[in-house]
Specification:
alpha/beta, five-stranded parallel sheet
């Protein structure tokens, strides 16, 4: 698994979308001589909504499967009215059927931790343990503080990527500002001075 952590505005979601776009949404394996075929979904990327719970997250996973496979709302409809326990079992079946490699949860800090019991979050542990699917978490430091309390889940996040590491590289930021400054729509154009660059670096805290 992986965890991409950093403050808002540093490009976490954009980076993840660019990376996942390198992979096919679905791979259709055909073995005509054997009369056998199967579908493989490398990555399911879901975005948590504000004040959502684990049930809403699993509904999003089913909806993404429908979107990837072009099956309308077939998978979503099947789990929409189930309780959390049954929902988990069906999601596990979907993951196994479509050989899902990784589930990435973006904006994970938006999940309402206050109203979700620990047992609800541990359903994700059940899913990863029984299917072998990798888990990716994208969010702010708050995400790790909350999910990190559940150590059995936390260790499945794998390598932690600090999304804002570039924000402390002032030379890198100065080069970015110089490139951005070339795109001006005002007349006359403003000259980029050392003072402007340093002010932007300091005031933005590197989040441009």
């Amino acid at each position: 698994g992986l965890s991409v952590i950093g403050p808002s505005g540093v490009g976490k979601s954009c980076g993840i979308e660019l990376i996942t776009a390198k992979y096919p949404r679905a791979i259709f394996h055909q073995f005509p001589r054997l009369g056998y075929s199967y579908v493989q979904i490398p990555i399911i990327l879901v975005t948590a909504s504000a004040n959502s719970n684990m049930g809403a997250l699993y509904l999003s996973i089913a909806s993404q499967i429908d979107d990837i496979l072009g099956t309308g709302d077939m998978h979503l409809k099947r789990i929409r009215t189930l309780n959390l326990g049954r929902m988990v079992e069906v999601i596990k079946a979907y993951i196994n059927r479509y050989h899902v490699g990784m589930i990435i949860i973006d904006e994970a800090q938006l999940i309402d931790y206050a109203t979700n019991k620990q047992a609800s979050f541990e359903t994700m542990l059940t899913i990863t343990a029984s299917t072998g699917v990798a888990l990716g978490i994208v969010g702010t430091e708050e995400t790790m503080n909350k999910w990190g309390e559940l150590l059995r889940i936390h260790r499945r996040f794998g390598t932690r990527i600090k999304a804002d590491s570039y924000c402390s590289d002032k030379n890198y930021l100065r080069n970015i500002i110089k490139r951005i400054w070339k795109y001006q729509w005002v007349t006359p154009k403003m000259e980029l001075t050392v003072g402007i660059i340093d002010t932007l670096v300091e005031e933005s805290l590197g989040s441009i």
